[in-house]
Structure formats: C-alpha cells, structure tokens
Design goal:
- By secondary structure, the chain is mainly beta.
- It folds into two domains: 205 residues, Exo-inulinase, domain 1 (Jelly Rolls), CATH 2.60.120.560; 212 residues, Distorted Sandwich (Beta-galactosidase, Chain A, domain 5).
- Helices cover 6% and strands 49% of the residues.
- The protein contains two helices and 33 strands.
- The strands form six sheets. Strands 1, 3, 4, 6, 9, 12, 13 and 15 form an eight-stranded antiparallel sheet that branches.
- The longest helix has 26 residues.
- The N and C termini lie far apart (65 Å).
Length: 463
C-alpha cells in the first residue's frame, strides 16, 4: 500500500514538473538572473570610475554629485577629471531579454543602457524638461522621444523596465528581421512601444549586428548609480496585442487647472471612493481623498484616462496617466493630539471629521475644507511654477493641540534644516517656515514626521 502511494505521488510530481516546463516554454521564459552587486565580477574589465557601495546620496542642486556609502548592493559610477569614466559591459551575452533595474541620476546627469552594446535607451536628468527629445530620459537615442516625461528628480531612485527583441538571422548569417524595443517603462509609464531598430543607434560599440552580445552601461557622461538589476533571457518573445481596453480611450486633458471627481484605485488594492483629482498645464497632477483630508498621490505626465468610468456603464474609476508617487494609505493628516507622543489615530471614528467640500479660486485652484475635532481646516494645494512638485498650505482655526503628519515611511532623513528625503529616496519634502517645529518619531518600525499647527503650515513636495 505504501509503495503504491509513493509511486502515485512521484508520478504526480513528475507530471507537475513537466507541465511547469511546458508552461514556461509557452510563455518564453528561459532564465532570469538578478545580477549580484556584491562585487564587479559580473562585468568585463570595469574601469576605475565604477565601484560597489551600499547606498548613494545625491544633491538636487549640485551637478554631477553623488557620494557612496561603504558596503554592497549598489553599482556606482563616479567619473572625474582624475578618473576617466568608461562604459561597463556584462560578462554574459544576451539576445531577447527583459531587463529591470533602478537608477539614480545626479543633477544634469547623462547615461544610457545599450542592449547588445548597440541600441541605446537614454538615461538623463530630464526632471524639469518641458519638451522631450530622443536624448531625454527614456528616449531611444537619435530615433524616438519618450511619449511622456515620466522622470523623477535627481537624487531619487527611478524604475526602468526594457523588453527587447534581438535581430534575427538566417543560417547564412544574413539579417532577416530588425531588432525591436517591444516596450520601455519608466517609473511605471510606457514611454516606448514596438519601436523597430533598422540600425544600431549612434555610439554603438559596432554597427555589425549580432544575435547575442553583452549589455553595456554608459559610464563616460557623469555620475549615476544602479541597483536591483535583473536580466531575464527570453527564449521567444511574444507580445500581447490585446492589452488595454477594447474601446477607444476616453482621455481627460489638463490644458488648464482641471478638476474631476471619481473613484481612484491606489496601490495595495485600496480604493478611494470620494477622490478629487486636480490637473495642471504644468503636467503635474494630484488626487485628494475627501474622506480623510489627505493628499494620496501625485504624478507627472498626462492627466487622466476616464475610459473605465465613462465607457459603457463604467465602474466609476479613472486612471492617472503618468509616473505616480503615492503618499501612503488613506488616513487623517490633521488631528488633535494630547501630546506629541500620542499615537496617530488609525481611523476617523473619534476625530469628529466632517468634509465640507472645496472652494475654487479665480485661477481654478481648489482649497479643500473640513472640520476635525473643534477646528476648521483649509487645505490649499497648487503646482509649483517650475513643475517640480506641489506646494501645500494648511490653515487651522481654533488650532489648540492640532498636529499634521507630514510624512510616514520606513525611512525619513533630514538632509538639511527643513529639508527631508522620504522613503527609499522616493521624494523630497521642504518646510517653508524656518521657525516650524517638527518631530521625527519612531512608530512600530516606521518613521513619522509630525508638526504642531497653531494657525498654519506651508511645505512643498518635489518628486
């Protein structure tokens, strides 16, 4: 009886393994490798400008400035007058690949990811750029500009995903199909899709095209850092041609200050049902949660895709069309505390929170109004003139023992008086009142930045 049971188990296990292999073959997955950044052995003959560090720090106002923290896990390039920057090549060679990585630019920084050393996706500090070109962040150099400027500020980690199809050759070595960038995502936004590469881009290691070659990282144009580099070799690329909605998209533009109410789905499956999204001509937009008086997200790019809300019967939701910066799960941002050690309330039950809508000024900028405890709060948000982020001014009437939670994250670092770096280098926060008192406290393994409000507080967020 035991022998039969074991035999059946082994047969089931064998069948499962075969099915798994067949499924992987159908979807083209061959091998996925995270490049270990404990040392430089994954790269061929690295130049002296390259080093492995634990972390990097940049300065949003100083060009070509990054400093490394001793340790492992981050690839740092620091060229200088004394140390010439050189390009970096992987030891392994690749054909069809999916690449994922994080990169951090210095101010005015410039670099690039060359697939097979020949086809470049441009990396550049394009944060405040008003018109993108093929030389901008996420561009295919000298060929195609990114659809949207989805760049983040220098000194912040940015996400890049590349899906690449190598050129095809027949048995005689003749090229029968051009290389393609199937998709490029910058900070979660599709900036390139199905771009055919008739020839290598300028600066290629060679104009002779091949089936496989090393990945190349440009290193002679300035300081830059990388981490979480994953290269997945793909046996056969397959593109889903049925992505997105069947209906023609219904897009909402923001050529001037524009307000739209809808449901809004955040990360981690959270839905805001009384969301007010505000768009600006500076291509920086945000969503406000009326149920908590909270700025829940902001993004750079286009305004909203309202297809899910307005197509057919719709489901009430709209979608941000840009690189989103989330600010945490919905919660009250202004509350009454007995003292600065009291825990922040987890809900609105005992706060006597009551939303009172918003008023719009002559420029189309809303000020949100609500009551919490015995105080009236007025919350005015406006996009900074240079498009670098959002300014926020909170005023409180009867503000006894009222506090604002400016940020909550796993990491909060004061980089200079009144200037903070939030999360894993996700965004900057700057207080505009030099006399503002702030408290940085530890709460259950996280950091909270809170401030007492007597009558008002003003700060800005840059991302």
């Amino acid at each position: 009886m035991k022998k039969n049971t074991i035999s059946v188990y082994l047969l089931m296990l064998s069948t499962t393994l075969v099915l798994t292999a067949e499924i992987n073959a159908v979807y083209g997955q061959e091998k996925s490798n995270q490049i270990p950044l404990n040392d430089l052995t994954a790269f061929n003959d690295p130049g002296k400008s390259w080093a492995i560090v634990e972390d990097v720090n940049g300065n949003i106002n100083v060009a070509n400035s990054l400093t490394g923290v001793t340790g492992t896990g981050v690839l740092l390039n620091l060229p200088s007058k004394k140390v010439k920057g050189t390009d970096l090549y992987t030891v392994l060679e690749y054909g069809d690949v999916d690449i994922e990585l994080k990169f951090l630019m210095s101010k005015n920084g410039n670099s690039g990811i060359y697939l097979q050393g020949r086809y470049e996706v441009q990396l550049e500090d394009s944060w405040n750029l008003t018109k993108s070109t093929s030389a901008s962040n996420g561009g295919i150099y000298n060929l195609k500009a990114p659809r949207i400027n989805a760049s983040k500020a220098p000194g912040l980690w940015q996400d890049l995903k590349i899906s690449f199809q190598a050129p095809r050759f027949n048995s005689s070595g003749e090229k029968i199909q051009n290389a393609r960038f199937l998709k490029v995502l910058l900070n979660g936004v599709v900036v390139q899709e199905n771009v055919e590469l008739f020839t290598p881009t300028p600066g290629a290691v060679s104009n002779q095209e091949v089936a496989k070659a090393a990945l190349r990282i440009q290193g002679d144009h300035g300081a830059i850092a990388f981490k979480d580099l994953v290269i997945s070799e793909i046996k056969e690329k397959k593109v889903d041609e049925n992505e997105g909605y069947a209906a023609d998209p219904i897009l909402v533009e923001a050529n001037e200050n524009t307000i739209l109410r809808s449901f809004m789905d955040l990360d981690q499956g959270v839905r805001v049902v009384h969301a007010v999204s505000v768009g600006s001509a500076n291509n920086v937009h945000y969503t406000y949660d009326m149920d908590h008086g909270m700025l829940v997200q902001a993004w750079r790019g286009q305004f909203l895709d309202a297809t899910p809300m307005w197509d057919g019967r719709g489901n009430g939701t709209s979608l941000p069309m840009g690189a989103i910066q989330y600010f945490g799960q919905p919660a009250l941002e202004v509350v009454k505390l007995a003292n600065q050690q009291e825990a922040w309330p987890v809900d609105t039950v005992n706060s006597h929170y009551k939303p009172d809508g918003y008023v719009v000024d002559s420029g189309g900028i809303p000020t949100f109004v609500y009551k919490v405890s015995d105080s009236e709060v007025r919350d005015k948000l406006s996009v900074l003139d240079d498009g670098s982020g959002i300014n926020r001014e909170i005023t409180v009437e009867n503000g006894n023992n009222m506090y604002m939670r400016l940020a909550k994250s796993t990491q909060i670092l004061e980089i200079k008086k009144g200037h903070y770096l939030i999360g894993d280098k996700e965004y900057y926060l700057q207080l505009h009142d030099p006399k503002a008192q702030v408290i940085l406290r530890d709460v259950n393994g996280e950091k909270e930045l809170i401030a007492p409000i007597k009558d008002h507080i003003t700060y800005s967020i840059s991302f």
